[in-house]
Amino acid sequence: MNTQNFPNARQSLPLPGLDGANPLGFLGALGLFRIVCRVREYEDAKMRWVGRHGTWIPCLDDSNLDSQLLLDLLDSQLVRNIQGHPIKILEALGSTDSGSHAALFREVSQDAAEASWLAALASSVTDATSVNNQLQTARRDYFFGNLSSVMARTTPAHIERTVFHPWDYSDPLDNQSLHFDPSEDRRHALQWNKPAGDPNRKVSGGMLGANRLAIEAIAWFTSLPDGENLHTLGFTGFNSRNTRWTWPIWAFPLAFNTVTSVLALRELQEENISTGSVQAMQYRGIAAAFRVARILVGKTPNFTPTQRVA
Question: Which pLDDT score, from 0 to 100, does residue 186 have?
Answer without folding.
Answer: 67
